[in-house]
Design a protein that fits this description.
alpha/beta; Rossmann fold; six-stranded parallel beta sheet; about 290 residues; two-stranded parallel sheet; 9 helices
Length: about 290
C-alpha cells in the first residue's frame, strides 16, 4: 500500500527548510514532496489544479507566503494573491481531494492591544495590510475545506533564511551599539520546533485524532524584542551595547502590534504538543549557526 503524501510549499523558507531537515525521521510513514515556485506556483490557479491532480496529497502544508510586512503596504495586490486568494484555491483543491490543509498564519491577525494571551477564538483586527491578507487567507481556508488546520505563529526564526536572530548577529559583529524596540512583546518561535509540532500533529491525525480549526504555536516565554536581542548578544559573546527604544522611535511603513502573546492551550489539549522554552531553542539555533 502506498504511503500518504505530504506536500510542503515554500521549501526555501524557514519553516519549509526545517520540515525538510526532519522529514527523513518520518519517511517510514509518509512520502514527502517539497516544492518551490518552479514546481508549484501558488499564484497560478492552473498550477495548483495540476499539482493536486498529479500528486493527490493526503496532507498539504502551506508554508509559502508573502512575508515582506512593510512592502505589503504598497504591493497589496501581490500580498493578497499569495496570502489570501491562492490559499482559498488550495483549500478548494484540498476539499476535492479529501486532503487535510495545514496553513501557517500569524499573530499579526490581532491588533496587539490585548493584555492577556490571545485565545484562538479572540476577535481578529489586523493593524497592517500583511495581517489583513493573512486573516483573509485563514477565512478562505476554513470556508473552502472542512479538514483545515490554521496554525498562527509569531516571531519565527531559524538557522536558515532571513530573520531577527541572524540580523542581530550581523549587526552586533559590525557595530559598537544598536537600538532595539522594547515596547513590543511576544514569544519567539524556532522554526525547527514548529516543524516538529506539525509532523507530530499529522501523525496524530493518521491515528484517528481528528481535530481541525485554529491553533496557536510559539516557544514558551514572553519577552520584548530588546530582551531577545540582549539574549542573542549575551549568548554569542559580542560586546555590542543594546539600547532599548520605544517603537515610536523606529517608525515602519506597516504598524506593528505591541502585544503578540498567544494562548497555546488548545494545541496541547487536542494534540499533546509540548512547548519548549525560548531560551533553550535560541541556544539550539545559535549552535546550528556555528
Amino acid at each position: 500500500m502506498s504511503k500518504p503524501v505530504i506536500a510542503v510549499t515554500g521549501k526555501n523558507g524557514q519553516l519549509g527548510y526545517e520540515l525538510e531537515q526532519i522529514a527523513s525521521a518520518y519517511s517510514g510513514a509518509f512520502e514527502f514532496m517539497f516544492t518551490d515556485r518552479s514546481h508549484l506556483d501558488i499564484g497560478n490557479p492552473s498550477s495548483i489544479v495540476d499539482f493536486f491532480e498529479k500528486y493527490k496529497p493526503a496532507y498539504f502544508i502551506n508554508c509559502a507566503a508573502y512575508t515582506a510586512v512593510d512592502k505589503a503596504e504598497t504591493e497589496q495586490e501581490a500580498a493578497y494573491l499569495v496570502n489570501a486568494e491562492s490559499v482559498g484555491l488550495i483549500a478548494v483543491q484540498c476539499h476535492l481531494h479529501h486532503c487535510t490543509l495545514i496553513h501557517i498564519s500569524t499573530d499579526y491577525v490581532f491588533n496587539g492591544r490585548g493584555t492577556e494571551p490571545y485565545r484562538t477564538d479572540a476577535v481578529t483586527d489586523p493593524v497592517n495590510y500583511y495581517g489583513y491578507t493573512k486573516w483573509k487567507g485563514e477565512q478562505l481556508a476554513l470556508a473552502n475545506n472542512e479538514q483545515t488546520i490554521i496554525i498562527r505563529t509569531s516571531w519565527v526564526y531559524s538557522a536558515h533564511g532571513n530573520n531577527f536572530v541572524k540580523t542581530m548577529l550581523r549587526l552586533m559583529k559590525d557595530r559598537a551599539e544598536i537600538k532595539v524596540v522594547s515596547d513590543q512583546v511576544g514569544s519567539p518561535t524556532y522554526a525547527a520546533d514548529l516543524a516538529n509540532a506539525i509532523l507530530q500533529m499529522i501523525s496524530s491525525i493518521e491515528k484517528g485524532n481528528l481535530h481541525y480549526g485554529i491553533y496557536h504555536y510559539s516557544n514558551e516565554g514572553v519577552i520584548s524584542w530588546y530582551e531577545f536581542a540582549s539574549a542573542i548578544r549575551d549568548r554569542s559573546g559580542f560586546s555590542c551595547k543594546v539600547l532599548p527604544i520605544p517603537g515610536s522611535e523606529y517608525p515602519t511603513p506597516a504598524k506593528r502590534p505591541s502585544y503578540s502573546v498567544m494562548d497555546k492551550s488548545s494545541l496541547q489539549n487536542d494534540f499533546g504538543i509540548h512547548f519548549i522554552d525560548w531560551q533553550k531553542s535560541l541556544d539550539r539555533c545559535l549552535a546550528a549557526l556555528q
